[in-house]
Amino acid sequence: MDRIFNFKNLSLRVRIFLSMIFLTLIASVLIAAVSIYQFRKEAREYHQDRLERKEAAITEHINYVLQTTTYPLSTENIPLIFKEKIFELADIHSMEINFFDLKGKLLISSKAIFKLDKDKPKINPSTLKIIQSSLDKRYIEFSKVDGQSFRSSYSYLKDTKFKPMGILNLPYEENTEFYDNEVKNFLIRFGQVYVFMFLISIILSYFLSSYITKSLKIISDKMEETQLNQRNEKIVIEDGSKEINLLINSYNTMVDKLEESATILAQSEREQAWREMAKQVAHEIKNPLTPMRLTVQSFQRKFDANDPDISKKLDDYTKTILQQIDTMSAVANAFSNFATMPAQQNETLNVVRIVKMALEIFNEDFIQFSALEDEIIAKLDRTQLIRVITNLVKNAIQAIPEEQENKLVFVTVFRQNNEVKIAVKDNGKGISRENQERVFEPKFTTKSSGMGLGLAIIKNIIENYNGTITFETEPNVGTEFLVSFPINNNQNK
Fold it and tell me: The CATH number of the domain where 109 resides is what?
């Protein structure tokens, strides 16, 4: 279950998009929460301030009544002093007014008439203790009745000599209807604006995430296409951000260094190949020199002009020397052909006809030819194309053991994806796994004679035309070489 949604597995574009939407939601919720809190805070402060102002006005009015009354100022006389005035005060200030004695028993109220003393309400003992223990002898009690909030102010009623004579109680109902309506109207307006802003944020998030990831996608695609053995294009983005430009500059610098490294590597590989080639040539030339030396020395020791078989011995000696000279000549020619490839003479050729003509020099009756089209035109060098075909067919023939009964070499020419393809397939012994990676090495061969330059030469020819050569092989089943040439090629000169 924890893997159903994994944020880290999402693409950068989706993560940016979702993150911006999430931030928009969080911001909206916070704005709404802060606004509601502020409305409620203002409501509390308003009611607190209103209660304090009313309390101050009523207290001032009460003090005036106490100063002008003819009754002695005592707790027992409070009902007499405010018998008529309490209703007048309540009407003037639009407040309920209650007077309690110092023990919390109700003396007189502007709201109700109590018939029995036992029915009269009293101040809660805990509230009374708080009033008595407070420094300013004042306490505000909060309560809720039927879901409506109330504030009750309790303060000492003092005579002209500041002696406590009773407790003044002012119940205050917090009418939050106005602020509730304001909050409701705000939420409605905010919801409308929020829906609009949310749609805008979705659109902006989509385009912004696309803009950010577009440049990254270009860089990613270029990096995937980057290879050591080819020329890599640099990235050019004109309106990229500073971070994207830094990344692009790093990539372009890497491409420059990669190209330099490829040049150095190619040069090193060529030098290494020539060194190995020179060693191989020296070895191949040295091999026939030793038997030639031994033959000359042996003939020198055993030469007898009077020997009746001198003519036959001289003929054998001459044949041995000539055989070794031919071997050295073959070695030299092979090396020369690989080292100095003749210049390409590009012609507009019918590849099908040229391949068919190249096969005519072979006498083997098990060579079969097939073409899906009668004509496939490409610009190639006739001589080099024939050389490629003859070399591949020759190798295919040699790959089939002499003792094998059913021999087959199948050559096919066809067109595919604007390329002309030539397939040479045999049913020989195949190429062993350990030799497959070395097939195109200049000095590699599995034959008892030759230098192993044939496949290396034709690979060089094919690549000069921006073509490719690949093979598939299976031991004791056969091998198929596939050559591809671009029909519209722009080969390197």
Answer: 3.30.450.20
**pLDDT by residue (tens digit) across 48-87?**
887 788 888 888 888 888 888 888 888 888 888 888 888 8
Same domain for 350 and 460, yes or no, is yes
Give the amino acid at 189.
Answer: R
Would you give the distance in Å from CA 406 to the centre of its chain? 56
CB burial string 223-248: b at 16+ within 10 A, e below: eeeeeeeeebeebeeeebeeebeebb
Contact 489, 379 (CB under 8 A): yes
Helix (H, G, I), strand (E, B), or coil: what is residue 97? coil
Q: Which phi and psi angles does 9 have, rounded to 5°? A: -80, -10
More confident residue, 430 or 445: 430
Q: CA–CA separation, 223 vs 462, rounded Å?
A: 27
Q: Which two tokens stand for residue 384?
A: 């080099």
Q: Are residues 183 and 53 in the same domain?
A: yes
Of 19-23, 223-227, 316-320, 422-426, the one with minimum mean pLDDT is 223-227
Whether residues 354 and 434 fall in one domain: yes
Q: Which amino acid is at 110?
A: S
Sign of CA dihedral 160, 162, 166, 171: positive
Do 42 and 80 belong to one domain? Answer: no
Closest CA to 34 of 186, 188, 198: 186
Q: Are strands 409-416 and 367-371 parallel, antiparallel or unpaired?
A: parallel
Residues 119, 159 within the same domain: yes
How many structural domains are present in the chain?
4
Q: Print the domain residue range for 407.
A: 346-486
- 461 burial type by CB count under 10 A (0-12 exposed, 13-18 middle, 19+ buried): buried
Q: Percentage of the chain surpassing pLDDT 90?
A: 10
User: Do 203 and 293 belong to one domain?
Assistant: no
Nearest of 425, 415, 427 to residue 371 by alpha carbon: 415
Look up residue 370 and give its two tokens: 């097939």
Q: What is the pTM of this model?
A: 0.36
Would you place residue 480 in the very low, low, confident or very high pLDDT band (cuts 50, 70, 90)? very high
Bridge partner list, 347 = 380
